[in-house]
Amino acid sequence: MVANLGKEEPPAARRGARRLPRRESALLWWALFAAIAGAAWWSWSWRVALLGLLTWCLYEFLLVPTLCRVLKRQGHPCAERVRGRLFACGPSHQHLKNDALWRLIGLRNPFQRDAEDTDPETGGVVHSPYLRGRLTRPDRALILLAALGTIVTLIGTIYSFG
Hints:
There is one protein chain. By secondary structure, the chain is mainly alpha-helical. It has six helices and two strands; from the N terminus they run αααββααα. Helix 2 packs antiparallel against helix 3 and helix 3 (46-63) packs antiparallel against helix 6 (137-161). The longest helix has 25 residues, at 137-161. The protein is flat, with a radius of gyration of 22 Å.
C-alpha cells in the first residue's frame, strides 16, 4: 500500500493484459463521406459522387474496424479485431472467410484446401467449416452493397470516357 500511496491495484486480469492500438473514430470516415457528398451536391458533379461511392466501397472492403466473426470450434464467434469486412484474424479463419466469400457469389473456392472437420483433441466434428465460415447478415449485406457500388463506379467511369 505504501508503494502506490493508497491507490488500489488494478485487477490481475488487466495488469498483464495486452493493450490494442487505438484506431481512428468511424465518425472521421463518415465526415469524409459527408464532405464528398456535399462537394458532389454543391458542384452538381456525378463524377465526384462516384469518387465518394468508390471511397465508401474501399472503406467497407478494406478499412472498416470490425470483428473477425468466424465461428470457433466451440460455436461462438471470434471476437478478434480486424480491418475490413474481407479479412479475418489469422490464416485459418481467413481460409474459412475466403470460402464464405466465394459461396456468397455462388462459386466454390478454386483455391480451397481439404478442410479438416474434426477437432484435433477429441477427433469429433464440432462445427463443419461450411457452418463456421458463414458470413453474418450485416457483413453479407454490406459486402454485396460495396460490390454493387464498385460495379456502378466502374460503369460510370467507363461511361464518362465514352
